[in-house]
Amino acid sequence: MKKERAGPDWRRIHHSPLFWIGAVLFLAAAAIYVASDDLAWRPRADRQVGGP
Known about the structure:
Elements: H1 17-35
């Protein structure tokens, strides 16, 4: 006999195209961040611009 569940079956989320689009965009963003040296919004304090 099968048990009834109150909510949706969240194990099927991997069948959704939106899940895969989000997963690919997340992995692409992580790869770009790792491949770049630094994608900080502000420059680091130890870097000096136009030194002597």
